[in-house]
Amino acid sequence: MTGLWLALFFLLGATVGSFINVVADRLPEGKSIISPPSHCPGCQQGLSAKDVIPIFSYLWLKGRCRYCGITIPRRLFWVELGTAILFAFLYGHYGLNWELAIVAFYCCLFIVLLLIDLEHNILPNKIVYPAVIFAIVIAALGSIFGFEPRDIADTGFRLWIVDATIGGGIGFGLLLLPALFYRGGMGWGDIKLAALIGLVTGFPLVLPAMFLAIVSGGLTAAILLLLKLKNRKDAIPFGPFLSLAAMATLFWGSNLLNWLSENVAPTL
Q: Taking the alpha carbons of 168, 211, 253, 4 in that order, is the dihedral positive or negative?
């Protein structure tokens, strides 16, 4: 039975990944994510159901449009496959419960923001602001009705909304400081995303989330500079590192926090 559920969540994730691709493609350009229906960007031919089966259509068509032969971006395939694997992992990690639904929603949100920032260097307010409101509301409801994510770290207040509020403030403040004191240090989109991550992960899990993002972003930038793939004037989007760090913290936040407290904190 578990195998069947894993397969179902794999298929569900592939379908959701297809929708994520639509959002990432259309939203930055101000287009509707509902209409027009899926079509080839080259010949504008509307796609039939057999052309848009997640993962399988890409493989069957060998990465090309059936009608004009234009190359289909590989990103579409990898997002569908990655989201399918992610959903199967989430089911295996959380089981079938309310926490699975919330974490899956947040992961989809972070994947969309990752893709948009990576390809357009923007973190749209039309995504971030509603997500902030959702995070506050869900944390408040959790506090009122007595349910919390099992991996959330407790400040001692035993109220999700308190953890979320403190986390949001820390995430916002940690990236606001370099933006104020270092020209070009951080964009406002990154600052708002950090605040959202703090609301989602809560305190003190916002700390490993920010640590992971800053370290991974810094190391990646250093490698790109050493390989001369980027120069110091080139902008490197930070949103993808924030998004990946947030998802890692949602899965393994308590373990990451324990590792930081045992290995990093004593050296500071």
A: positive
Show the 3-state SS of the chain: CHHHHHHHHHHHHHHHHHHHHHHHHHHHHCCCCCCCCCECCCCCCECCHHHCCCCHHHHHCCCECCCCCCECCHHHHHHHHHHHHHHHHHHHHHCCCHHHHHHHHHHHHHHHHHHHHHHHCCCCHHHHHHHHHHHHHHHHHHHHHCCCCCCCCCCCCCCHHHHHHHHHHHHHHHHHHHHHHCCCCCCHHHHHHHHHHHHHHCCCCHHHHHHHHHHHHHHHHHHHHHCCCCCCCCCCCCHHHHHHHHHHHHHHHHHHHHHHHHHCHHHC
Give the phi and the psi of residue 209 in degrees, each rounded to 5.
Answer: -65, -45
**Tokens encoding 145:** 């009705």
Q: Report which residue type is found at 255.
A: N
pLDDT digit string, tens, across residues 204-257: 899 999 999 999 998 998 898 888 777 777 778 899 999 999 999 998 888 888
How many Å apart are CA 31 and CA 151, to the nearest integer? 37
* Rounded-to-integer distance, Cα 200 and Cα 247, Å: 10
Alpha-carbon gap, residue 41 to 65, rounded angstroms: 9
Q: How far apart are CA 265 and CA 268, in angstroms?
A: 5
User: In whole angstroms, how large is the CA radius of gyration of the chain?
Assistant: 20
pTM over 0.85: yes
Q: How far apart are the C-alpha atoms of 90 and 84, rounded to whole Å?
A: 10
CA–CA separation, 4 and 9 (whole Å): 9
